[in-house]
Every structure is written in structure tokens, then in C-alpha cells.
């Protein structure tokens, strides 16, 4: 009796599985169409993110240009004061220049990393758009031949490849976004750790030395 019950239970499970498989097969085109739609939505969002990155880069570029102009102005002023033997004024200008050069170096590093991130993201988006075009073509072909069971089986295999590939692409995008969000903190942390390990001078001592170097640079 127990064996009969187990066989009936097994048959019911098999029947449920067959029904579910039939539902999936019957809706294969709809499923693939929805997958493509979701990927296209993600692509549009990524393009907007890229546009924001480009806008940030352009804004930072304007700040960099303004800083470079200030640096050149300070350099000219230092030369003038040294020529007029105004050491005190030259010292103050050199102090200001040291601050400007520090900020300029930091912002230049940020700009370079933003530019690199922009290029990487742009390449990912190009690859994504190319892959999406492939699956859109496949979807059109499948719709034209949806009555053919062989075509349906082939489409199912393509759908699996599609899901795997875009899962990897999404993971890549997430990693890139995470790296971009934290690069400022990482840069600062690396500088602090390196200074500590190398036993370098304190920031105040470094500042004084930089001022001396600037004065020496324009005296020569």
C-alpha cells in the first residue's frame, strides 16, 4: 500500500513538473522579450550614469584650469618679489603656492581617475549594446518561426546564454561603480599609510620644506 502511495506521489510531482515546463515553453518568447526589456532599461540607466560622470569630469576640468591659472599667477608674483628683494612677501606667496599645488595635484589625480573610469564604462556600454542587438535579432527570428519546435529549443539555449552573460556584465558595472564611489577615500588612505611606513616628515614640516623648495626654484 505504501509503495502505491509513493508511486502516486511521484507521478503527481512529475505531472507538476511537466505542467511548469509547458508553461515556460509556451511563454518562451515573452520571457526573452522581458529579459531584453530589462537589459535595455539597465543600459539606459547606465548611459545616464555615464553622462553624470562626464559632467563631473567637465566640472573638475574647469576647476583644474582655474587652479593652473592661479598657480601661474603666483609663480609670476614670486619671481617679481624676489627680483625686488622682497623676501617676506615672496615667502608668503610661496606658502600660498604650496597650498595651491597640493590641491592641484589632488584634483588632477581625481580627474585622471574619472577619465579612466569614463573610458572603461563606455567600453562596457558598447559591448552591452552590441550584445543586446544580437538578442533583439534572435527574438525577431524566433517570433517569425515560433511554430517550429526546433527553433523554440534553440531560442531557449540562447536565453540561457543571455542571462549568464548579462549577469557577468552587471557584476562588472557594480564593481566599477563601487570603485568610482570610493577612489577618493582610497587615495587619501594610501597616502597616509605610505607616509607612516616610510617615516616621512609631518605635514607641517613637509609644507615648510615645500615653501623653501619653491623659493629656491625661483632664486636659481
UniProtKB/TrEMBL annotation:
Region (Disordered): 196-220
Compositionally biased intervals (Basic and acidic residues): 211-220
InterPro entries recorded: PspA_VIPP1
Coiled-coil segments on the chain, per record: 50-117
One Pfam match: PspA_IM30
Keyword terms: Coiled coil
Tree of life domain: Bacteria
Family, per entry: Belongs to the PspA/Vipp/IM30 family.
Name of the protein in question: Phage shock protein A
Native organism: Leucothrix pacifica
